[in-house]
Records
---
Amino acid sequence: DTGVSQDPRHKITKRGQNVTFRCDPISEHNRLYWYRQTLGQGPEFLTYFQNEAQLEKSRLLSDRFSAERPKGSFSTLEIQRTEQGDSAMYLCASSDSEAFFGQGTRLTVV
Amino acid sequence: RKEVEQDPGPFNVPEGATVAFNCTYSNSASQSFFWYRQDCRKEPKLLMSVYSSGNEDGRFTAQLNRASQYISLLIRDSKLSDSATYLCVVQPGAGNNRKLIWGLGTSLAVNP
């Protein structure tokens, strides 16, 4: 499979725990995006990488969120001290021109 | 004004109908435009890019109007399987700043 892959597909965690998600983009794509989506809403931008450089981070993100793309390939998104409001689908996309999405990680904070 | 705006709908149409969606954008220097389709609880999938000259893919036609800063998507002969949310995406930057800006989506329900 040469598409964007995300791991895990589902994550249930207790409030206050830390979680980390991984995204493997399409190999020749140098741009990588993280989005968050809740039911009935469009994707909400979180952050964006060009190769290993994090070019932009949404002001909506608190300091509890951090993302890395250390070698310009895969990326990780970490959420510290999760809150119930963090429950959402976390989508990763990579692009050369058009963007292609992974299937997402559905996070439920209980 | 939001950067990208869409009528959320829902649009309820019978099978075989023709339906059109518009999407307006605020940045006149925007470079690239796309339509994505998203099924319930699935990830968005690219439907088509939108070129300045307009483009057609089967029953789907996309057009760009730079003067009025909107893009459109026309679906002819609607099928039940076209029921989904259609998301408009604009890429305002060039070079290294090529962040995607998403609309909130237009919901389409095609009824038998």
---
Amino acid sequence: QKEVEQDPGPLSVPEGAIVSLNCTYSNSAFQYFMWYRQYSRKGPELLMYTYSSGNKEDGRFTAQVDKSSKYISLFIRDSQPSDSATYLCAMSAGNFNKFYFGSGTKLNVKP
Amino acid sequence: EPEVTQTPSHQVTQMGQEVILRCVPISNHLYFYWYRQILGQKVEFLVSFYNNEISEKSEIFDDQFSVERPDGSNFTLKIRSTKLEDSAMYFCASSEIGGYRTGELFFGEGSRLTVL
């Protein structure tokens, strides 16, 4: 079983739609959860960071962590064509030796 | 916003040659990492480095790879004898531990390695 599972997509939505991106994981020791946006041939850009369970909101982005279900989500409200990118989830346990990444979901927001 | 910087942005080399990729992590960070991404594939962990030693490495990180922090600011990845399959984007990352932003992992823009 992979440490982190993420649907690769692609996910295609019209401009203005609400987007839901998800990852599941198997390691109950994970405490630090991140979402990255990656444009083609660029480095991953940190979008959202959450420690332990709960919700976090930043502008149009909301990150949710449900540790009981080992499930994390990223919601994008009022999606824009500029949101078209690959979205990666990443997580870590407390030792920081390694961050585990999902395979990334490719999102296309159509004007 | 402090950032991780990497050089070179693109390097082309012949198979069998040595390559050194350089990174300047964010100054107050304590953990350093190298990840790589073959075109169109997932981000793969190579190695983590803490307190001047390797803390964890993947099966990809064999004897052909080494890392070093030669001074207080640079963090390097050396590939001794490059193979065609080493062609990838190599990302350096760093993380702050014990501070306000503990656990957040910041990436550089990457160094694209092309092995011919």
